[in-house]
Amino acid sequence: MPKGNASITLIGVGLAKVGVEFVFNGPTNECETCKLKNTCLNLDIARRYRIVGVRGNMKHDCALHDIGVKAVEVVESPSIAAIDSKSAFVGSRIVYKQNDCEVRDCKIYELCHPNGLRRDDKYVISSVLGDTPDACPEGKSLKLVELRR
Predict the structure, then answer these.
(1) DSSP state of 41
(2) Domain ranges of the chain
(3) How does pLDDT run across 30-71, given as a tens digit for each residue?
(4) pLDDT in tens, 107-140
(5) Which residues have a Cβ under 8 Å from the Cβ of 1 and sit 6 or more positions away?
(6) HSE-up of 95 (CA within 13 Å, CB side)?
(7) Beta-strand (E) ranges in 1-149?
(8) Which of 63, 77, 105, 110 is the most exposed place for a label (fewest CB within 10 A)?
(9) What span, in angstroms and rounded, lies between the C-alpha atoms of 4 and 83?
(10) What's this model's pTM, rounded to 2 decimal places?
């Protein structure tokens, strides 16, 4: 039985470890004819997940993973993002907007454009982690927060 709100999916044997996080990128052409695709492709595309359980030792063949896949239990992971400090309050519900930024070589660019978050989705700020590790080169006042859907 999955833990809490966990989903069961399949992942490459080498990645099937509790605590591993990944962003689900969706199907590939090889998935179209796979008999296990409904179990593999049951996650939301572009969302970040964390493995909370590995189910047994059974391996299944997979066209993408040369040593096969295993069943795992996953939950959606919170994401860390840099947002405008005026909006950074624990418990606040926000509609996520990436920071408008043209400085692609910025040291905190990935925090302002984190993988696994979708523009215009609703999130709750579960924690304010503090200031960004480096200042914004455009002078924006930013805070690091943990977001949950």
Answers:
(1) T
(2) 7-76, 79-148
(3) 888 999 999 989 999 888 999 999 998 899 999 888 899 999
(4) 999 999 888 888 889 999 999 999 999 999 999 9
(5) none
(6) 1
(7) 7-12, 21-23, 48-54, 69-76, 79-84, 93-95, 122-131, 142-148
(8) 105
(9) 29
(10) 0.78
